[in-house]
Design brief:
The complex is a heterodimer of chains A (about 160) and B (about 110).
Chain A: H1 5-14, H2 16-26, H3 31-46, H4 58-79, H5 101-105, H6 110-121, H7 126-133, H8 137-159
Helix pairs in contact in A: 2-3, 2-4, 3-4, 4-7, 6-8, 7-8
Chain B: H1 4-22, H2 39-58, H3 86-89, H4 103-110
Classes of the chains: A mainly alpha (about 160), B mainly alpha (about 110).
């Protein structure tokens, strides 16, 4: 069963804000990358390369497409980067200022950060997160628990 | 110490609040569907190539020789006596008639 184009467009518009914020989170808060990823996602949907089969909620499906598009985008972005511009990797110095929540969040491992964002920021259940990320529910639960513990420690470090 | 869930929930609600205030969400705009390349686009060069090949190989470039009266070469062969070298040998040469090339010297000597 395929969805009408007008319905699809109105659903995309409805979730556009959340979709952009999720794309931003998937792209480590790079606004340009998030824009590109979101446009690529929409193009996939418009061209029918990504089809909503109504097996989950529209938001779950859309978030899943955004996540996988962002993963692919990061891979291609890395492969075409000239070595001249690459600096020797150094540990980023995160500002431990209380208000810099995003920097604090970026200190978490990627999977834990994703699971926590989907759970607390986008208010998804663990089962829905498993659908969105394509991970097993047990794996999601593990990342969820470990992420919470790690984040709590980081928050406490900042509070001290 | 706060409940662990509450603490984390507060943390994320603060992020969300900040995002909603500060993050400028770009205007919703669906990208245009890329047009699929038409089959005609590929057919035109193929058809022109095929036509060119047909023209080149289809025409028989070997010209036919048109026979006219002016350029006809007629070779007439008649059956006659076979040519042989008998005529050259028909003259009988006698040994008595033979003269030596130095015969003249002999004659002068005799005089």
């Amino acid at each position: 069963m395929t969805m009408k184009n007008s319905t699809l467009e109105s659903l995309l518009e409805k979730h556009h804000k959340d979709a952009f914020l999720w794309a931003l989170q998937c792209c480590h808060y790079s606004r340009d990358d998030a824009n590109d990823v979101l446009q690529m996602t929409y193009l996939k949907i418009v061209e029918g390369k990504a089809k909503f089969k109504e097996q989950s909620t529209f938001k779950t499906w859309l978030f899943s497409v955004i996540r996988f598009t962002a993963i692919d985008f990061k891979k291609t972005d890395r492969s075409y980067r000239s070595l001249d511009g690459v600096e020797v990797a150094e540990e980023p110095e995160y500002n431990t200022d209380e208000t810099n929540y995003k920097a604090l969040l970026l200190q978490l491992p990627e999977r834990q950060r994703e699971v926590l964002l989907l759970a607390f920021y986008h208010e998804m259940t663990l089962a829905v997160i498993a659908e969105t990320t394509g991970l097993h529910i047990g794996t999601v639960r593990t990342h969820y628990e470990r992420g919470k513990t790690a984040l709590r420690k980081l928050i406490q470090t900042v509070e001290i | 110490m706060k409940n662990d869930e509450t603490e984390i929930r507060e943390f994320f609600s603060q992020i969300r609040e900040t995002d909603l205030k500060e993050t400028e969400v770009p205007q919703f705009k669906l990208p245009q569907k890329k047009r699929k390349p038409s089959v005609v686009r590929y057919l035109i060069p193929l058809a022109s190539m095929a036509a060119a090949l047909l023209l080149f190989f289809g025409i028989d470039w070997s010209k036919e020789v048109v026979e006219t009266e002016d350029n006809t070469l007629v070779i007439t062969m008649t059956i006659g006596e076979p040519m042989n070298t008998d005529d050259f040998l028909s003259e009988e040469i006698s040994m008595t008639n033979w003269k030596s090339p130095s015969d003249i010297l002999i004659q002068e000597f005799e005089d």
